[in-house]
Amino acid sequence: MSLVGKLALVTGGASGIGRATCRIFSKEGASVIVADRDPKGIKDTLDIINDKSKEKHLGVELDVTKSSSINNTLEKSLEKFSKPPSIIVNCAGITRDNFILKLSEEDFDEVINVNLKGTFLIIKTFANSIVEHGIQNGSIINISSIVGKYGNIGQSNYTASKAGVELLTKTASKEFAKLGIRVNAVFPGMIKTNMIESVPDKVKDRFRSMIPMGRFGEPEEIAEAITFLASDKSSYITGASIFVTGGF
Ligand code: NAP
Questions:
Q1: Would residue 239 count as lying in a domain?
Q2: Ligand 1 centroid to 195 CA: how many Å?
Q3: Which residue of 3, 160, 178, 235 shows the fewest CB atoms closer than 10 Å?
Q4: Parallel, antiparallel or unpaired: strands 87-90 and 58-61
Q5: What phi and psi values does residue 102 have, to the nearest 5 degrees?
Q6: pTM of the entire predicted model
Q7: In 3D, which of 39, 87, 42, 35 has the Cα closest to residue 65?
Q8: Is the CB–ligand 1 distance for residue 34 below 6 Å?
């Protein structure tokens, strides 16, 4: 699945699934823009993916909820590479779990802002730039979640945001098909990253017992599906929802 010569933006690239995606993209030959709000994590990802050619990748501090920060990321990409990325991975995401009866308005808004509005803002800014630069073969991959399909106790804000990501993906795929940009969504199950560290053990055990493959996934197992969607191997796939859940 060669990505030689491609330029990719990975939001949430400082951790978990985003970091694994940066690693596999760079192994497949892409230049990667590692974008996240965590500067230390960005540096650690760059240390992992940089080899001798330290100039190949770029780290940018990004808050996906702020248009000014997104514009700054685009400007830095254009400065360094003279073109926008043709591969965009919307991986930045947060949880603020609570039961609906106790969930604060702030925690509802924050999760929707990062997971759903952030995905929209990134798509809008970078797809416009892809079109302006006459780039064909664009590929946008949005990270939803399997709980965004079925719901999950204590995650009304998160599941609503991730369900929104699915329909944002499908609509964008219809609008962008004639522009040469494919848009797809990946739905991870339970994946071993910082995000699930705060989940209580008994909840984790309950989830594990419902996974036919009997285990949680590794970030790399999501990153491989993302890499397929980023590559020309998936050239006729757009508007798709791909579940990577161990059968959950
Ligand atoms: P993670 O390890 O927590 O990584 C998420 C990254 O996104 C973190 O570096 C985080 O920074 C960053 N981020 C959060 N808000 C941001 C913002 N406003 N602007 C820029 N970056 C921001 O989590 P992960 O498990 O890899 O999650 C990656 C994606 O997969 C998320 O969209 C998540 O919802 C989705 N997902 C994960 C699982 C799972 O089981 N792990 C399952 C289904 C879906 P901070 O650390 O500073 O917050």
A1: yes
A2: 7
A3: 178
A4: unpaired
A5: -115, -5
A6: 0.98
A7: 35
A8: no
Q: Which residues, 6+ apart, have CB-to-CB distance to 25 below 8 Å?
A: 3, 6, 8, 10, 32, 87, 227, 230
232 domain-assigned: yes
Residue 2 resides in a domain = no
- What CA–CA distance (Å, rounded) separates 14 from 218? 16
Question: What's the structural domain count of the chain?
Answer: 1
pLDDT digits (tens, 9 = 90+) for 203-243: 999 999 999 999 999 999 999 999 999 999 999 999 999 99
Instruction: Give the CA count within 13 Å in the CB-facing half-sphere of 192.
Output: 8
Range of the domain at 223: 7-244
**Beta carbons within 8 Å of 97's beta carbon, 6+ residues apart:** 154, 155, 158
Closest residue by Cα to residue 75 from 53, 91, 60 = 60
Kindly state whether residue 193 falls inside one of the protein's structural domains.
Answer: yes
Q: Which atom of ligand 1 is nearest to the CA of 222?
A: 30
- Whether residue 150 lies in the annotated active site: no
Mutate to test the pocket of ligand 1, among 36, 63, 159, 215 (most ligand atoms within 8 A of CB): 36
pLDDT on residue 106:
98
Cα-Cα-Cα-Cα dihedral of 38, 40, 41, 45, to 10°?
130
Residues of the chain scoring pLDDT < 50: none
> For ligand 1, atom 39, which residue shows the shortest CA distance?
191
Largest Cα–Cα separation, the chain: 53
CATH code of residue 46: 3.40.50.720
